[in-house]
Amino acid sequence: MKKLIIANWKMNPASLKEAKALFDATKKNTAKLKKVETVICPPFVYLAAFGSFGFARASGSGTRLSKSQAVSVGSQNCFYSDKGAFTGEVSPVMLKSIGVKYVIVGHSERRAMGETDEMINKKIKSALACGLKVIFCVGEKERNVDGEYLNVVKKQLQIGLAGADKKMLKNLFVAYEPVWAISTNRSASGGKAVEDSPDSFLRMSLFIRKVLFEMFGNAWQHSTPVLYGGSVNAQNAEGFLKAGLAAGLLVGGKSLDKKEFGEILKIGEMA
Ligand code: PGA
């Protein structure tokens, strides 16, 4: 299976012009990749330009993204109803209709803005139901010595996936992102060098599979890919992919740096 390397641009860059330039530069870096699928997740407003229906116009190159190309487009969020009186929201069906393939659900920055496990559960079910691939983010705010953080992640998984249709779980990816290791949180805490390790990620990904097994039984626990996110850069990417056995990476800050993100993609190809 291909490694999934996801660029979470968050609320960047500031203009469509810059977004197009970054998209094109990133796409160029994926040209020779065979073992990596790159997913670019720009802000909502740029999605229509980059989804498979809009790419020809956005790039001016006259080529569309085809299924075989190594770049896919993802959204950073979605709502849970298909349509209706929900001012400011965007539905999974709308995303699908413009060629978006992936959606990130439950990112810690959205949880911090009030998104609950119950809302995340509705979003995941609705996104899976319309055929989107879901990158479900889980992760604790702090690592306490008594192991309580394991219960935090377990609860996020149990509520987030409650009642999910087993048949649709083939489109589910779990991204483990310890909140304390996300780059912007680290700088907020005075730049303290708190980095997760491949070894601790590996243990957490086994725990995540165990919880999925308890919930869904059968073979799903083996097939759900678990990705790592949190201050991924060109120095630590190989460790998470090789020693940590991560199925992919969710990259925030460094996905805005075309050179470093290009290096991370190359590392993914070799890992
Ligand atoms: P980071 O962000 O790579 O800047 O730590 C990751 C994320 O929040 O998805």
**Rg from alpha-carbon coordinates:** 18 Å
Q: Distance between the terminal alpha carbons, to the nearest Å? A: 12 Å
Bound molecules: 2-phosphoglycolic acid
Strand arrangement across the biggest beta sheet: 1-2-3-4-5-6-7-8
Topology order in helix (H) and strand (E) letters: EHEHHEHEHHEHEHHHEHEH
The largest β sheet comes out as: 8 strands, parallel, barrel
Helix content: 40-55%
**Strand fraction:** 5-15%
- 3D shape: globular
Query: What is the β-strand count?
Result: 8
Q: So how many helices?
A: 12
Average pLDDT, all residues: 90
What features would you describe in this structure?
This protein is α/β, with parallel strands linked by helices and 271 residues long. The protein is 41% helix and 15% strand. It is built from 12 helices and 8 strands. Strands 1-2-3-4-5-6-7-8 form an 8-stranded parallel β-barrel, surrounded by 5 helices. Strand 3, helix 4 and strand 4 form a beta-alpha-beta unit. The longest helix is centred in the last third of the chain and has 19 residues. The protein is globular. It binds 2-phosphoglycolic acid (PGA). 2-phosphoglycolic acid binds next to helix 8 and strand 8.
